[in-house]
DNA sequence: CCTAGAGATTAACCTATGTTAATGATAATG
DNA sequence: CATTATCATTAACATAGGTTAATCTCTAGG
């Protein structure tokens, strides 16, 4: 399997010595995932960090009454994981599901902790990755608090370009925190406006 | 000034050698802040990490139309900062304001970066602090997506015990993402229910 | 003790979004 | 080609929460 995309993502954060990269490479597992498969189930402790090589994933909460809320999407070239489950060994609050057939790479948190002890560069990688996750979360919180459903739809289009054609409106609406019907109304209004 | 509370908070995360702690202590500044004062202004780049010794702070977004949204509160014994502003040197999206007269300690991000280079323990501290912030953000996002205004009010009472008597309903409502009038309605319904 | 001001409550009305259900469009399958 | 399944749209109605404004309560100052 081709490790180059992962190496590129890591080495954008800090310099990784050849020897260190070689070690990590030996610990990476590759998985093929089919559309609909769950990589992480809600309520289950997860211990792996994933890298999306191809495909689209969603991370979603499931309410007791069956309602789902998409918290985020993952596209090619991104790391993803149920971070709080992994670092605290607690059951994941959310599930991760493939919305297309996909290929992912992964390594365990145990390996990451070993890396931290092996070489300083991995501490930098770990810190910067979590910093990026934090900034994403903060952005998301700001969007939910400050913006209307219609504004959030535009922000979604900017943040996940092209994704609106790969996933259904059900999933977009669930990300925006509104019903698919409501999203359809918003889209309807938009296309009217653009006719004027 | 008394550094003990800060030391305790740090050393819960990992062992800090005496020499390292001594160095950090020399870099810490103390500030007295009066009720209403802004520690960080929206649109301004911030470079300090704060520790709340006494008092209550709010972190809030300001919309163009003057609407405010409280994103979080800080009470005694907590670290706080405009993290994305500090690490990326970008203008802070939100402001930090004292809701009571307060005393805080602070050090700069530059000092934190020096610490990272000095000793491995600080990388652990930095990573664990940001991990905690991340988990808080994730919790908040889950609350905003999954719960009704009434449920979020109960979650607020659990998460910030005692705070409901220190701040006005305006600030609580702004945290919940509803109007003060709506919060009053929720509280009204609750006290009716408890009479039955 | 009286008054002014801040905050909380309550009521009346309005709007955005949810829910349900019917209808349309499109693509996959026998 | 006809059929079915899936997704999107639209309409009708219900409800949560927003807005405004009047009223109430409490506290601090004069």
UniProtKB/TrEMBL annotation, chains A, B:
Which CDD domains does UniProt cross-reference here? CAP_ED
One Pfam family it belongs to: cNMP_binding
Please give the name of this protein: cAMP-binding domain of CRP or a regulatory subunit of cAMP-dependent protein kinases
This protein's source sits in the domain of life called Bacteria
Give start and end of each Cyclic nucleotide-binding domain.
12-115
- What would be an example GO MF term here? kinase activity
- Species this chain originates from: Gracilibacillus kekensis
Please name the Gene3D superfamilies in this protein's record.
Answer: Jelly Rolls (2.60.120.10)
Q: Does the keyword Transmembrane apply?
A: no
């Amino acid at each position: 399997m081709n490790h180059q995309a992962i190496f590129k993502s890591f080495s954008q954060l800090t310099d990784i010595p050849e020897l260190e990269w070689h070690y990590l490479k030996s610990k990476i597992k590759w998985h093929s995932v089919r559309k609909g498969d769950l990589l992480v189930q809600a309520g289950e402790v997860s211990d792996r960090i994933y890298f999306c090589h191809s495909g689209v994933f969603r991370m979603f909460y499931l309410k007791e009454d069956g309602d789902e809320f998409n918290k985020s999407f993952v596209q090619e070239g991104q790391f993803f994981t149920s971070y709080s489950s992994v670092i605290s060994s607690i059951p994941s609050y959310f599930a991760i599901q493939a919305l297309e057939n996909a290929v992912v790479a992964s390594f365990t948190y145990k390996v990451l902790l070993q890396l931290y002890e092996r070489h300083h560069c991995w501490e930098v990688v770990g810190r910067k990755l979590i910093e990026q996750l934090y900034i994403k979360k903060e952005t998301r919180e700001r969007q939910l608090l400050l913006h209307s459903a219609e504004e959030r739809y535009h922000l979604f289009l900017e943040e996940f370009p092209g994704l609106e054609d790969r996933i259904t409106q059900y999933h977009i609406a669930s990300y925006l925190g509104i019903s698919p019907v409501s999203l359809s109304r918003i889209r309807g209004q938009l296309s009217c406006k653009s006719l004027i």
